[in-house]
Write a structure and sequence with these properties.
Elements lengths: L2 E2 L1 H11 L11 H11 L1 E3 L11 H6 L14 H8 L7 E4 L5 E4 L4 H5 L13 H5 L5 H13 L2 E2 H7 L7 H13 L3 E7 L7 E6 H4 L1 H7 L4 H16 L1 E2 L1 H8 L3 H13 L4 E6 L12 E3 L5
Parallel strand pairs: 1-9
Antiparallel strand pairs: 2-4, 3-4, 5-7, 6-7, 8-10, 9-10
Helix pairs in contact: 7-9, 12-14, 13-14
């Protein structure tokens, strides 16, 4: 059984997560280069998920503080100012958390959605099958009928003014994770003078839809998995499942193809594996880290 070299893994992640000794990102242009280099990243670090984030690349490997004057929160302004620039794809995608995706990679994500036909009608298929909640349908139809809406107007026009915040937010997250809507700007609205403006993805970004047209699901999963391992260096199947949520049989087939293609090594053990710990069991890793 091959063994994962932890020193090599640490060096690899220092580069792909942009940690010391590499210099922290200090500008929006560098942030864009980082997203393009990695293919996709998180905006914030997510507990329990080892994956690059813009926050970590700027502020280092530390928790996100509540203090608004923390220098790391410059990332918030970078993200908001780029919403209408089409320099990357930003929405709550992976695990319904804020995800930044390069324009080259976004079609591979879109190819794994159910958005096959006319965006004016195809949302009804998952709704009629019971997989799209009523609230999400109302939110989608409000944007479909009225054009881009900030969250204050959107909630009213979706007839969800009396709904719980959690129900409305869940509807937004479901629609974003399936590439049906995305935030395209910020409006000075509401009690905080800050509200995202949402639009239908296919209407706002027809090139994305066209770019995904000829990408098969197997190709898309292979591309995203390869980029994932290029970022993290090594992971276990449970890590893959936790991030992508494809279902274990589907994820295992995709991983097997990467192993057969020589892109990653399977059946790898860690040097520090301890029985009964999260690190125990078989690992998957880039060949150069074994």
């Amino acid at each position: 059984m091959p063994t994962l070299n932890l020193d090599k893994l640490k060096t690899h992640r220092a580069r792909t997560f942009n940690l010391p000794p590499h210099k922290a990102l200090t500008s929006p242009a560098q942030a864009l280069d980082f997203v393009n280099a990695r293919g996709f990243i998180y905006f914030w670090p997510i507990k329990g998920i080892d994956f690059p984030s813009l926050w970590t690349a700027v502020a280092g490997d530390r928790p996100v503080p509540n203090q608004h004057d923390d220098p790391g929160h410059v990332t918030w302004g970078w993200k908001d100012s780029a919403l209408d620039q089409r320099i990357w794809y930003y929405a709550k995608v992976l695990r319904r958390k804020a995800t930044m995706i390069s324009l080259e990679v976004a079609p591979y994500f879109y190819a794994l959605t159910e958005n096959y036909g006319d965006y004016k009608e195809d949302y009804l298929i998952p709704y009629e099958d019971g997989r799209l909640p009523q609230g999400a349908k109302q939110v989608y139809e409000a944007i479909l009928d009225n054009g881009p809406l900030h969250t204050i107007d959107l909630r009213r026009l979706a007839r969800m003014s009396n709904a719980k915040d959690s129900e409305f937010n869940k509807a937004l997250e479901i629609l974003q994770s399936d590439f049906k809507i995305l935030p395209i700007g910020v409006a000075k609205a509401g009690s905080w003078n800050y509200a995202f403006i949402y639009e239908i993805t296919a209407r706002y970004w027809p090139d994305l839809v066209e770019g995904a047209r000829y990408i098969g699901e197997s190709e898309a999963r292979g591309k995203l998995l390869e980029l994932y391992f290029q970022s993290v260096g090594a992971a276990q199947m449970r890590d893959v499942n936790k991030l992508f949520r494809w279902g274990n049989p589907v994820a295992e087939r995709a991983v097997k193809k990467l192993i057969e293609g020589g892109r990653i090594a399977g059946n790898v053990k860690r040097e520090d594996t301890l029985k009964g710990t999260r690190k125990s069991g078989e690992w998957l890793a880039l060949a150069e880290l074994v």
